[in-house]
């Protein structure tokens, strides 16, 4: 069934004819296909609504508001001995220091540019008799060194990855 479309341009009605109708139909088909193809725009789930989880891939957020009552980072308490921090850890706190403790940062996390690590002396005794040694799992370096020591009571070391190695954030 043919549809006779009438459009208004500058207040004057016009019938664009079959060629323009076909172009409009093709454009509408492209738009509809794009809206339904989540692999093209990367959005899944409800974009507007009340869901607690949104998954967006390759999207830029502007004017985002974070609810600080639900925002948290990965925390890990490390007792005496040596440990490789978990991949979800952002803040690792040494909670027992009766000997030197080595905290190792996994290579899989160092290769993520912008990844932040915070290692802290939660005992308040680093440097008096023992130290916290921060190391990498592989050949990565921390400010040109294989390891960095926390030797200050209550000391905190904040690191950021450049995708290859770690830099200290003062």
Q: In short, what is this structure?
A:
The protein has helices at residues 17-36, 38-41, 107-110, and strands at 7-9, 12-14, 43-44, 55-56, 75-78, 83-84, 91-94, 101-105, 116-121, 132-136, 147-150, 156-161, 166-168. By secondary structure, it is α/β, with parallel strands linked by helices.
Molecular structure report:
The protein is an alpha/beta fold and 170 residues long. The chain is built from 3 helices and 13 strands; from the N terminus they run ββααββββββαβββββ. It has 2 domains: 7-56, no CATH class; 75-168, gp9 (Jelly Rolls, Sandwich), CATH 2.60.120. Helices cover 16% and strands 29% of the residues. Strands 5-7-9-12-13 form a 5-stranded mixed β-sheet, with no helix packed on it. Strands 6-8-10-11 form a 4-stranded mixed β-sheet. A two-stranded antiparallel ribbon has the order 1-2. The radius of gyration is 28 Å and the shape is elongated.
DSSP helical segment count: 3
Strand content: 25-35%
How are the strands of the biggest sheet laid out side by side?
5-7-9-12-13
Fourth-level CATH superfamily of the largest domain: gp9
Number of strands: 13
> What percentage of residues falls in helices of 4 or more residues?
10-25%
Principal-axes shape call: elongated
Multimeric state = single chain
What does the largest sheet look like?
Answer: 5 strands, mixed
Radius of gyration over alpha carbons?
28 Å
Strand-helix topology:
Layout: E1 7-9, E2 12-14, H1 17-36, H2 38-41, E3 43-44, E4 55-56, E5 75-78, E6 83-84, E7 91-94, E8 101-105, H3 107-110, E9 116-121, E10 132-136, E11 147-150, E12 156-161, E13 166-168
């Amino acid at each position: 069934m043919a549809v006779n479309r009438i459009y208004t341009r500058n207040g004057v009605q016009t019938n664009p004819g079959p060629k323009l109708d076909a172009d409009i139909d093709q454009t509408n088909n492209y738009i509809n296909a794009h809206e339904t193809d989540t692999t093209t725009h990367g959005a899944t789930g409800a974009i507007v609504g009340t869901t607690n989880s949104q998954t967006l891939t390759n999207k830029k957020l502007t004017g985002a508001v974070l609810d600080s009552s639900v925002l948290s980072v990965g925390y890990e308490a490390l007792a005496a001995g040596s440990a490789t921090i978990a991949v979800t850890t952002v803040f690792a706190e040494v909670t027992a220091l009766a000997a030197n403790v080595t905290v190792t940062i996994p290579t899989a996390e160092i290769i993520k540019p912008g990844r932040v690590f915070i290692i802290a002396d939660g005992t308040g005794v680093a440097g008096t008799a023992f130290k916290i040694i921060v190391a990498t799992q592989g050949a990565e370096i921390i400010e040109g060194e294989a390891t960095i020591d926390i030797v200050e009571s209550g000391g905190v070391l904040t690191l950021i990855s450049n995708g290859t190695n770690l830099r200290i954030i003062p």
